Amino acid sequence: MSYVSSYTLEELIDDVRRRAAGESLTCPGCGWTDPADRPRRMYDAYAEKGPNGGIGYGYRLCKVCGFAQDADGGESYRVWLSTHECVPRGLAVDRGEVSCRHCRKTLQIVDGVAAPHRCGKYLRQGDSGYCCVTCGEWQGPASARPLHGDRRREVRREESSAA
Ligand SMILES: [Zn+2]
Ligand SMILES: [Zn+2]
Ligand SMILES: [Zn+2]
């Protein structure tokens, strides 16, 4: 994966503007570009509002190769994917909907219980895991799943060994 020395807030704002105009962005790590008609993005720039209403900070992340970079002028880094079957606990309401703080899925609550869902998070290489606040369970190295690009490489390997 190629290494990128810096990504600034100005570049992030420009990426967000291009995305709003319907353009697809290209991952500097692996060259992946999402087809324009694909609703689910594998590579994107994510912006958060600052205190004055405009874009305050953000990052870019590629779910294909694990390239990530914060828009603070710093260097790129790698992420790994942690996923688990999440059984929500400690729900504040008895009935209705809550959105999972990690994966943002909408969870339906019936009689104080929400059905388990597939939950996940991209973590920095070097981070050993995180505590999922939705289920309260520690998700360590055993929760690691291959990235999208690794899965595609595995399929290609299987195809070539079968030939
Ligand atoms: Zn990539
Ligand atoms: Zn969980
Ligand atoms: Zn979740």
Give the topology, please.
Blueprint: H1 9-20, E1 43-49, E2 55-62, E3 67-70, E4 77-86, E5 96-99, E6 106-110, E7 113-114, E8 117-124, E9 130-131, E10 138-139, E11 144-145, H2 148-162
Antiparallel strand pairs: 1-2, 2-3, 3-4, 4-8, 4-11, 5-6, 6-7, 9-10
The protein binds zinc ion (3 copies).
Can you summarize this structure?
The protein contains two helices and eleven strands, in the order αβββββββββββα. It is of the alpha+beta class and 163 residues long. Strand 5 (96-99) and strand 6 form a beta hairpin.
Explain what this protein looks like in three dimensions:
With 163 residues, this protein is α+β, with helices and mostly antiparallel strands. It has 2 domains: 9-75, no CATH class; 80-149, no CATH class. Helix content is 17%, strand content 33%. It contains 2 helices and 11 strands, in the order H-E-E-E-E-E-E-E-E-E-E-E-H. It has helices spanning 9-20, 148-162, and strands at 43-49, 55-62, 67-70, 77-86, 96-99, 106-110, 113-114, 117-124, 130-131, 138-139, 144-145. Strands 1, 2, 3, 4, 8 and 11 form a 6-stranded antiparallel β-sheet that branches. Strands 5-6-7 form a 3-stranded antiparallel β-sheet, with no helix packed on it. The chain is globular. The model has no long low-confidence stretch (mean pLDDT 91). The structure holds zinc ion (ZN) (3 copies).
